[in-house]
Amino acid sequence: MDVLESIRKRRFHRSFTGEPVDEESLARLVWAAGRAPMGGAELVRRILVVTDPDLMRTVRQVTPSFLANSPVVIVICTDLGRAEASMGVQGRDTLSLVDAGAAAENMALAAVALGLATCFVRCANDVALQEVLGIPQNVRPDILVAVGHPAPTPSAPVKNPPAIIYRNGFGKVWNPPSLPLPGARAPEAAKAGASELFVSILYLVASARDCLDEPLIYGPFRMIEGVSRMLEGARDDRFLSRMKAEIDGQKYNVMADRGSFARWLDDLLREFAAEAKRRNAPAPAPAVAAVDGRGR
Ligand SMILES: Cc1cc2nc3c(=O)[nH]c(=O)nc-3n(C[C@H](O)[C@H](O)[C@H](O)COP(=O)(O)O)c2cc1C
Asked: Does ipTM exceed 0.85?
């Protein structure tokens, strides 16, 4: 699989099957982590693979943000003494964290290619992890990477909002051209068969019928899902892309908590209303060149 395709496909999972990760895949993952660069090319990284079920359970119990039920976790650590000796305080406090992030992302992308799923988990409690896993005091656990086979019905992906990109100076926004993504579905309109627009319309028609018989709360969800589908075609619009990411991240909350879903819809509507105001405002008058007293 092409690396760009792995990047496109990567999403973090928090629901895994109980199936163990085979030894070859583990070996490939730690190889990928080891291929990540290290500041100063000094060997400060330590990689700890945890597969023992009792240890896994304990790691989860001492790490409250460990939501994933994965059978494996790979802990990326830094030898603080070596990091400081090679690159000073900056090496210990900053570069090593960048190194750990690079190693973790290498594994996350390799996992996609291996048909596995991952989730990063921040190390909230170094002391507890050091105790449970026998990590020495001068070694800092930087990031945990949960690894396993994704559940057949994964939780909804939480997608990052689009990156804010500048060019040739902070604040100078750059909107790179949107290019076709490797391995991505070709736009429906370009293919024979139903267009994306047709499929969205059909979804709305079928939903209108379903709404008559479904519980009332499904109605707002159907509409929001319809909006999300329509927004597929609006990738060039920064505001709408941001709204799509927001909607896709929150839409399933309708099932969990009706009150907070209603508040979220209010916030969403507020954002659209403010954007409508911006779009309907008269265009700013062109700047008038300064004229001197003699009319020049
Ligand atoms: C440094 C870092 C720490 C993270 N820590 C956690 C965590 O403790 N628990 C968790 O469930 N997800 C964690 N995540 C995952 C993010 O929440 C996730 O990247 C975000 O929800 C976007 O989802 P996506 O990566 O699937 O697009 C972490 C991600 C990063 C980069």
From this structure: yes
Whose C-alpha lies nearest to ligand 1, atom 31? 120
Question: Tokens 């309907």 — which residue?
Answer: 280
Whether 295 is covered by a domain: the verdict is: no
pLDDT, one tens digit per residue, over 14-62 is: 889 999 999 999 999 999 999 999 988 888 999 999 999 999 999 988 8
Length of the chain: 296
Q: In degrees rounded to 5, what are phi and psi of residue 107?
A: -70, -40
For residue 102, the domain's CATH number is 3.40.109.10
Per residue, what are the HEC states of 50-75? Answer: ECCHHHHHHHHHHCCCCCCCCCEEEE
In a domain, 208, yes or no: yes
Q: Which of 6, 10, 12 to mutate to test the pocket of ligand 1 (most atoms within 8 A of CB)?
A: 12
Contacts of 233 (CB under 8 A, 6+ apart): 196, 197
Q: Are residues 195 and 122 in the same domain?
A: no
Q: Are 15 and 189 in contact (CB under 8 A)?
A: no
Q: Are the C-beta atoms of residues 56 and 83 closer than 8 Å to each other?
A: no
Q: What is the DSSP string of 3-52?
A: HHHHHHH--B-S-B-SPPPPHHHHHHHHHHHHTS--GGG---EEEEEE--
| CB-based pocket (< 6 A), ligand 1 | 11-12, 14, 65, 67, 119-122, 157-160
Q: Check if the beta carbon of residue 15 is closer than 8 Å to that of residue 155.
A: yes
Tens-digit pLDDT profile for residues 150-169: 988 776 666 677 888 998 88
